[in-house]
Amino acid sequence: MTRRTLVLIALGAFVTTLDNTIVAAGAPSIARDLGLDLGTLQWVALGYMLPFAGLLLVAGTLIDRWGRRPALLAGLLAFGIGAAAGGLAGATSLLVAARVLQGAAAAFLVPGLLSLLRSNLDARGRTLGAAVWTACLAAALALGPALGGLLSEYLGWAWIFFVNLPFVAAMLVLLPGTVPAGREPPGPRPAIGAMTVVTASLVLLTAALVELGENPRAGVALLAAGLALGAGFVLRERRARDRLVPADLTGNRVFAGSLAVQVLWGLGISGIVFFTPLLHQEFLGLDPVRAGLPLALVAVAVVAATPPVPWAVARFGPHRTVGAGLAVVAGGLLALAAVNHLPAIGPRVPGLVLIGAGSAFTTPLTSHALDVVAERRSGTASGLLTASRELSSALGVALIGAVLTAVRAIRLDAGAPAGVALATGYTAGLLTAAGLTLAGALLAVRVVGGPSAATSSPRDKRAVP
Fold first, then answer.
1. Where is the Major facilitator superfamily (MFS) profile domain (predicted)?
2. Which of 93-97, 225-229, 355-359 has the highest mean pLDDT?
3. 460: left (phi over 0), alpha (psi -120 to 50) or beta
């Protein structure tokens, strides 16, 4: 069973992460075929990221109540149906709906598969399983844009979605012999109302960012509605007996700071990753395959820079290590901005390498954030960290897209060629991302530093015997 479990975990980690990045290189082809503008195109990515992030907090509780095997089976079938519908979609609404279905399914697949580390594996197997999961995440992030470009160029963009189906089929075959049919005693009743309110708030805020660049009036209205729902969620959480986010986590300075740093990093990087293949095609004139390949340099740099990370943590502490890594990422973004006016790939390589190398030194953030919470909150804390990562990815695409769209529109009105206008907007996005990442670096040094003990707050210390 151990081998089957590891294979199932590896396939799930790879395919759910792949769908975050594979659409980037194929996005220009999708836009041309379906006649999408830049704002609408973003929803092909956001349609996956938002439900993924919004449902993660409640998915684990629902899996416990329904049973692991039924939940995983339903998730796999929904993910496969969404992939097939996305490939067959001939209209924007159908494509976005298919992506929403995939994102919702992924929100159940990820915690369901991660729970197998504990239920199916011994201590040694759990260590190996965690390494397999991490390696598959990195592989999907590295291969996503290049694979998306390759499929778009030679088979058509529909295969960006159809490529998921073999993974789903293999996981469906492995599932019955790997996941026990029984279920654990049901946990607490999930806070469905709170989840609905906070998810609606996030969707409205993201839509506001997308609309602000081209339709400011609609963007302001959406922003107001999203903030109102967000305020309602905060008030509800303060008064509720069963909170969606436990008070001993929100009151933990180090954990809350780690979440904020992760959000700032995601806001800066995710939008740049999504729009880079578009820039390479529209400004540099590259085909979809070559447009996505330079992003593989980022993944290579992450792998190359990872070995000295434990030494840096031991020598300087996790907060300084993460802060330095984010500062290097910001330097890479600024280096890209400095050469973005040049219509060539070569000058961009140093900036891409710096972004990857710096990102490797941000990896202690997650483990340190989990170290400072009580063991009884580790599952909830993991869900919050995963959800914040997905949420920041969605908001990053929307935010950088809003900046890019607004600046591009100004340049187009001034008579600049379309490619040059896009490049100018992309430079503005790079500068915005660098500012957000530098803010994350400063926050990491000032807030994230704290004891590496399994304590959440003075309140939580008293609650734990």
1. 5-452
2. 93-97
3. alpha
Instruction: Confirm if 409 and 213 have CB atoms less than 8 A apart.
Output: yes
Number of C-alpha atoms within 13 angstroms, CB side, residue 311?
4
Cβ–Cβ under 8 Å, residues 443 and 357: no
Encode pLDDT of 336-360 as tens digits. Answer: 999 999 988 999 999 999 998 898 8
How many CA atoms lie less than 13 Å away from 355 in the CB half-sphere?
28
> Can you give the length of the chain in residues?
465
Alpha-carbon separation of residue 56 from 111, 371, 388 (angstroms): 8, 21, 10
Q: From the CA atom positions of the chain, what is the Rg in Å? A: 21
Query: What six digits make up the tokens of 149?
Result: 């470009």
Euclidean distance between CA atoms 86 and 93, whole angstroms: 10
Both tokens assigned to 285: 């004139």
**42, two tokens:** 């973003």
Q: How far apart are CA 413 and CA 421, in angstroms?
A: 9
Instruction: Report helix, strand or coil for 361.
Output: coil
What's the pTM value of the predicted model, to 2 decimals?
A: 0.76
What is the signed CA dihedral for 15, 433, 279, 216, rounded to 10 degrees? 100
Q: What is the dihedral of CA 100, 103, 108, 109, to 10 degrees?
A: 130
What residue has token string 């529909």? 158
DSSP string, 175-211: HHHHS-S--PPP-SPP-HHHHHHHHHHHHHHHHHHHH
Q: How far apart are CA 450 and CA 443, in angstroms?
A: 13
Asked if 358 contacts 325 with a C-beta cutoff of 8 angstroms, the reply is yes
Cβ-Cβ contacts under 8 Å for 72 (sequence gap 6 or more): 108, 109, 112, 113, 175, 179
- Distance of alpha carbon 372 from alpha carbon 357, whole angstroms: 26
Q: Three-state SS for 19? A: helix
CA distance 29 to 288: 8
Contact between 202 and 391 under an 8 Å Cβ cutoff? The reply is yes
CA distances from 443 to 45, 254, 260, 316, 387 (A): 28, 10, 8, 16, 20
Joined together, the tokens standing for residue 257 give 């700071």
